[in-house]
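Box 3.1. Reading complex inputs
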Amino acid sequence: MIEVQHLTKRYGPVTAVDDVSFKAERGEILGFLGPNGAGKTTTMRVLTGYMPATDGKAIVAGYDVLEQPVEAKRRTGYLPETPPLYPDMTVFDYLTFCARIKGVPRSERATRLRNVMERTQIADVAKRHCAKLSKGYRQRVGLAQALLHNPEVLILDEPTAGLDPKQIIETRRLIKGLGGDHTIILSTHILPEVSQTCNRIVIINKGRVVAVDTPDNLTARLRGSETLYVQVDAMGADAEGMLSSIPGVTRVSTSDRRDSIAGFEVDSDSGRDVRRELAAAIVNRGWGLLELRPMRMGLEEIFLKVITEDAAVPETAPETSQTAPEASHE
Amino acid sequence: MSNVLAIAHKELKGYFASPIAYVVIGLYAIMFGYFFYALLLYFDRQSMQMAGLGGAQPVNVNEGLIRPVFLNTTVIFLFILPMVTMRTYSEEKRSGTIELLLTAPLTDFQIIAGKFLGAMGLYAAMLAVTIPHIAALFWLGNPEWIPIVVTYLGLLLMGGCFISVGLFISSLTKNQIVAVMATFTVFLMLWVINWIASFMGPRAQDVLNYLSITDHLDDFTRGVIDTKHLVYYISFISFGLYLTMRSVDTERWRG
């Protein structure tokens, strides 16, 4: 549905996107994750036909965005970083205009408009001028605009930016609901967002793709070994030594200690669950087992790990891929 | 075509939703009214004198009043049209709405043509302000209507030239003040470009005279539609729109 091949975009001497390739299948929600200035917006702008790539190819809904831009754009809905609203227009007029330029037939316009306004919950501000809308409403009007022509592909640049927590949840639910019918690429630098909404994640840093996988696989792949957190009341005995002697345990380190109660991080061989043995050993000694839980690596840690690994292993290419000014073109 | 009209409609609505349309039309109405009144006084005195001298021919209203009014008031557009075109692209770039247009299934030409037509619509509304004055002349005397219609056609074409240049300049900058000043300067240069013509060689003289936007209006105000002038205006407008298209396109590449 969306195919990006060796995409490169340079702004003069600055390389914003450097040889990026990825794919999104029909109905998939692809999360585009990266720190600010990683090249997310630039990639999306190339995909939507807003700007051409310096090199490489982007195919959206079967059409090359450079060769057949109008056909590709007809099938793409795009929510830019700043919702593109006309301050002097009312929301209703704005959406009517959008429907016209997106080629929604006159007979379907009213129904589409009503449907989209309902889905994005903006019907109550239909008569208000865009200039007077709050950030949350602007964002949702922008989203409504992207959905108007019922496009096969949706490209959303930070769709939840500026929303309050309740709206964020609603928007995520909306986006999740749209997946299946639509192929969605959404960018964000908020990590829980991708794990909650996306089927697959593309992590991008300094213009390069550093990882592509499902949220679960990414977590598993980067974890390497299993880590457990155990809190024990050992009544003064040497708990650390005892825990180390349990078969399968590779490393034990004390993470906190208060009086006789101590917390340990216990690493074990990957794929081996030592929780039963640990619990049995502690209880058999007559110690208090206060806490025992797996320490799952959150997306934050994965993200940082991936990005620092990326920086730590210098590529053969010289450091031309500086952080691009993402919002240089407002 | 429906895309072009959608853009044109949006542009025109945008002018009337902001103070621009009212300021522009209001200023034009005041200035045109004053010019008309002043030239009417001249005309009045002239016809009195002619009558006193016992001239057999009454003074021609078309030649004596309508033509000078329109030729003299064209200078007003010099100041006003830059205000009409300054925001066409600059504003969209500044507010980011250009992203909506450039990612919608539209060609660059459709966007530009729509913006051109929108500005032309406002310009036509400005010209409409002059209709009551002219209508009054029909009520008081009997001018010929054909030269008047041809004059309006000429004015529309001349305004089209200014607007196409204005669009181009607006597409170059995010800053509306820069757009307005640059447009005004270019208009003024196009206006006075043939002032030095008489000091040049015969070849240069022809070229400079040909380039001057207002010289081409002269024949229209006489009621003459000359292909030479039509070709000039239409190619001027096409060139302006073409430059705008190139500018929008390069802007994309530069990012």
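In summary: DSSP finds eleven helices and no strands in chain B.
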